Automatic annotation (TrEMBL), chains A, B:
GO terms for molecular function: acetylornithine deacetylase activity. The keyword Metal-binding applies. Its cofactor is Zn(2+); Co(2+). Keywords: Cobalt, Hydrolase, Metal-binding, Zinc. This is Acetylornithine deacetylase. It comes from Bacillus chungangensis.
């Protein structure tokens, strides 16, 4: 193993520029939703230079819509392909899925970026651009690991299933499609931007919308009306209490450094139409976190009960109960036992490569890991070189050193997990 | 006087249909802002059948804009005339302005109206339509009073200055223009819809806008951000305390039946853009009441200080103080001494006509009365036959009996205030 690690390190040094250029080309292709094809073509080109079986298909909207786990703003995916590359093992070993998403969130206000948002500019060892950290750097670390193993003539026993999927940012339709197509393995890795932390548990999340009613009146006689803003403030305070209650239950040591493990975020408040009128309708939208071991339906029930209690203590709410809806994407939570063999493997390889214990935490956001865990029944870990804090923000960047470190850890992890024949 | 009253009552009975038809024609002309000309033409036609000097002019935007009391969403008034009709007295008496506005607020959602919003339909002694109560019924009660006096050969000593102005709903530019043109009198009446109550004091009001800042973060790690919604709730609670403090000061017996004499209404709250993000900006808009004897600048100062105190107790507000703006229309407060001769005259005539004491209160909303009081230095009373609760609402209506009662009271008031020669 030590010899293979040294060979991998040497290979990565020799191919540093190649890896950097590949990442740059990927970042310079703005792959927001519906525009993934060009970036996927770069992935396909990279895979074609390796000895992998390439599978490219456009997820089928009709089939997906019948699946209870399907969420997307769109119902068809023409022109938006998934790409899978399978490095067939020689047999008798454990398989692994290396999952990553090609789609990126919109770049937002260009004025907030120092460079063009898709520049791929490199300064002080960092590459800048939307998607470089979330998560094209993670995709490239997979490709480097696979190519290194291949070119070094290392023959893995188990299959390696590389996946570059669409729609992670929009609800997981790409990964769901890959699962429905039949891709399974003994373990899965997702190189979302974790700052090189290892997340054996991931928070789930979903979006809620609440309508709070009031009664209109002239602002000069506001006491004749009922302010939907005042009522909404009561609802928001109640939600804050619910959040406190839910988080007091969390005693998982993985969350010991997290101030609020499963937050409930109020993201949008909008109500009233006229300064001189008492507002009669307020809309609240937000994101509710789901604990790694929690069922989404149970979390939704708690929110429903929280609002229900308001109707029992306030006669206005009794007559005009708030209306609760769930909309948009849902990210399933996920978790793997800390003593799981897959966890031990990755942690060991991290330690060997870095020379320190990894930071092990629960992730504060959802990923496709929940789908892979719940639908695929595959133990999944999230671990990647990207910078958590800058994902989705202007001047998103990655530290290139970390990408190559991750590639080394992944390559050695593949060797340990999938197994190799004894080599001369 | 008694004989003249009986003649006036008889005249009004004989001209009931004429008055009803005039009101109907006025209501059926939708005179929302910029569309006043047709309704004003009906007013001019009615005036031309009386022996009054008619003055019609389009307020001059350029001149008005230089005036500190000018507020309007528009800066020119082409096609939107004011109409004044002066019934010249024979001399030696007190003059009076009979002020009313021709403009109406938009009808809103047609689905909420039982009839067409401008139907002028009559059922059970009520006429329906946008503007019938606020305040075309009030304008018609003036016209009936003037016509009755004229046709009965009653010669008033003082001048009667009838005014049908634009822009009352938009900030007072019509009344301001009439004042700048030079129209003055010893007293003024405004037949806004008071349910036949007499308002010697009127609340002023103005619109405020407050921007509250936060700091964005991902909803899954909301503790890394600062929620502008939470901060806005603090601001709103503080404003509520300010309202309580301001109202505790009010000991005017005229307000004894008013739950909140000078309310601060939160009308619009809008913040955040994404359910999964901590909101970093919230906008609050509302209406602040001004006490009859209060200066607008002093009320604005109190609001400013209220927000200033927040910066002293909360370090976030210290670094990111809320931004306060005043925008849109301002309605000056107004008040007249309860013992003023003008007040005594109207109260006396009310009592004589109705046989009961009038209800005397302070008005909960602003009118052009503040402008007439402050700019014109003219003692002003607000009193009219319209139904307060339905102004600005769907299915606005007026009780026709009240309009004719008001006409009788106004005619007799003119006789007492302006004076008459002894008649045979």
């Amino acid at each position: 193993m030590k010899e293979m690690r040294e060979q991998i390190q040497k290979w990565l040094e020799e191919h540093r520029e190649e890896g950097t250029v590949l990442l740059q080309r990927l970042v310079q292709s703005p792959s927001i939703a519906k525009n993934e094809a060009k970036a996927q073509a770069i992935i396909i080109e990279a895979l074609s230079k390796m000895n992998v079986q390439v599978d490219v298909w456009e997820p089928d909207g009709k089939t997906l819509q019948e699946n209870p786990y399907f969420y997307s703003p769109r119902d068809q995916f023409t022109g938006s392909p998934n790409v899978v590359g399978v490095l067939r093992g020689i047999g008798g070993g454990r398989s692994i899925i290396l999952n990553g998403h090609i789609d990126v969130v919109p770049e937002g206000d260009h004025d907030q970026w120092s460079d063009d948002p898709y520049s791929g500019a490199i300064r002080d060892g960092k590459m800048y651009g939307r998607g470089v950290t979330d998560m094209k750097g993670g995709l490239v670390s997979y490709l480097l690991a696979i190519k290194a193993i291949q070119q070094l003539g290392i023959k893995l026993k188990g299959d390696v299933i590389f996946q570059s999927v669409i729609e992670e940012e929009s609800g997981g339709a790409g990964t769901l499609s890959a699962l429905l197509k039949g891709y399974r393995a003994d373990a899965a890795l997702i190189t979302e931007p974790t700052n090189m932390r290892i997340f054996p548990k991931q928070q789930g999340s979903m979006w809620f919308r609440i309508f709070v009613k009031g009664r209109s009146a002239h602002g000069g006689t506001r006491y004749e009306g009922v302010s939907a803003v005042e009522k909404a403030m009561t609802v928001i305070n109640d939600i804050r209490n619910l959040e406190t209650k839910r988080n007091q239950r969390i005693d998982d040591p993985l969350y010991k450094n997290t101030p609020i493990p499963i937050p409930i975020n109020i993201g949008v408040v909008s109500g009233g139409t006229w300064p001189s009128s008492v507002p009669d309708l307020v809309k609240i939208e937000g994101r509710m976190g789901v604990a790694p071991n929690e069922k989404i339906a149970d979390a939704q029930n708690e929110m429903r009960q929280c609002l229900q209690q308001l109707t029992e203590v306030d006669s206005w709410f009794k007559e005009h109960p708030p209306i609760l809806e769930w909309f948009g994407g849902q990210w399933l939570p996920g978790s793997i036992d800390l003593e799981h063999e897959w966890m031990n493997t990755l942690v060991y390889q991290y330690r060997e490569a870095i020379g320190e214990e990894p930071v092990i935490e629960a992730s504060p956001w959802g990923t496709d890991g929940g789908l892979i865990t719940e639908v695929g029944k595959i133990p999944t870990i999230v671990f990647g070189p990207g910078v958590t804090e800058v994902a989705h923000y202007p001047d998103e960047y990655i530290k290139l050193d970390k990408m190559f470190q991750a590639a080394e850890i992944i390559a050695c992890t593949l060797i340990q997990w999938c197994g190799v024949n004894d080599r001369k």
